[in-house]
Amino acid sequence: MRMLAIAIALSTVACSKGLDTIESAEAFAKTRGVVLTEKTEDAKQMVAPRCFDYQSGASKVGILQFNSVDAARKWKETMDGIPLEPAQRIQHGAIVFEVRGESDAEKQKVAAALQP
Fold it and tell me: Could you please report the per-residue DSSP string of 49-64?
């Protein structure tokens, strides 16, 4: 029983700090029912140290891994401030999910599932 309490406490701390790797973001998406397929590394972008693009139904999902929570927050705030930028961004720690969709309804469905 004591070990269970310790495991729960540690997972709570890990969840409160957010996600920190592409792999943890992929696992998080899976637990939320978001199926990510067609994984490709976006090596041409120069924003984040690691970035992968995926397909999820009719939506495209990008996962960007930054070096710090602050860097992820600043990039998200900057991009959210561009009025013509159609993607929806969700930050979890040093990870930012970027969701784009053909239809707003499909994009909103995926984005809602990825909310903290």
Answer: SEEEEEEETTEEEEEE
**How do residues 51-66 score in pLDDT, each as one tens digit?**
999 999 999 999 999 9
* Rounded Cα distance, 89 and 107, in Å: 11
**Using one digit for the tens of pLDDT, what is the confidence trace for 65-102?**
999 999 999 999 999 999 887 899 999 999 999 999 88
The alpha carbon of 81 is separated from its chain's Cα centroid by a whole number of angstroms, namely 18
The residue among 84, 3, 1, 75 whose CA lies nearest residue 97 is 75
Dihedral (Cα; 52, 53, 54, 59), 10-degree rounding: 140
Is 86 strand, coil or helix?
A: coil
Q: Rounded distance, CA 103 to CA 8, Å?
A: 39
